[in-house]
Amino acid sequence: MVSHSGLLTVIERAARKVAPQLRRDFGEVQHLQVSRKGPADFVSIADKKAEDTLVAELKKARPDWGFLLEEGGEIEGDPMKPRWVIDPLDGTSNFLHGIPHFAISIAVQEPHRSGKGWGEVTTGLIYQPILDETYWAEKSRGAWRHDQRLRVSARRDLTEALIATGIPYMGHGDMAQFSRIFGAIAPYVAGIRRFGAASLDLAWVAAGRYDGFWESGLSPWDVQAGILLVREAGGFVTDFRGGTEVVERREILAANDVLQSKLHKLLAGALRNA
User: Fold this and answer.
1) Cα gap 88→90, rounded to integer Å
2) Is residue 192 exposed (0-12), middle (13-18) or buried (19+ Cβ within 10 Å)?
3) Which tens digit of pLDDT belongs to each residue from 234-262?
4) Which end of the chain has fewer surrounding CB within 10 Å, N or C?
């Protein structure tokens, strides 16, 4: 059985502490109190409870680390120490509609070497409570589902590729841009899926279930753990320009080396022709 670091043990323990309460709330989803955070963007009581539990558990283990949270924003810690980047319930809309496709995403981000801002992510975990699937990665130690080593898909032909994406919706995203990209990619691939949880989309790219993924408008807590998983599984992750500013530009394209190149050409062509 593969062994992982003590830090990863801390993260998995925190995720598994939250999981039972999420499963209970999911079973009673019709009774959840829901507050409106924005157009078509809901936050459940379950979401808030999960984040509070994660913060409390992780603070016990690393009291001087900061946090970047989907609901709670930024909590400053020692600037010379890493911080946690957390989405306590990625796929909230799925959760609230009784669709069992959501996850907890936790990443560890190191301070930038310059001493200003934040640098690379070195540890990440994505946990699917319903299927009890734990995806995790540590820098230079590979990507894993439980104790099974993950590799991105080996497919090289777009006609055989199943690609995941996220679709803009009310108040979120650029529908015109998405339509151009979709129109450029769809005729060349075997299928496109939109399941509504970007962290799991990236975990599934790392596992070879999906052959590629693109989306724009995502936040750091949506992608930081998943980016590490894909890269540690041998995949390539770039922004829409082919660069590394995935989080800064809020653009992500992920696949194996050959498909990433082919998808990027189609995507870039769609944006040039706008």
Assistant:
1) 6
2) middle
3) 999 999 999 999 999 999 999 999 999 99
4) N
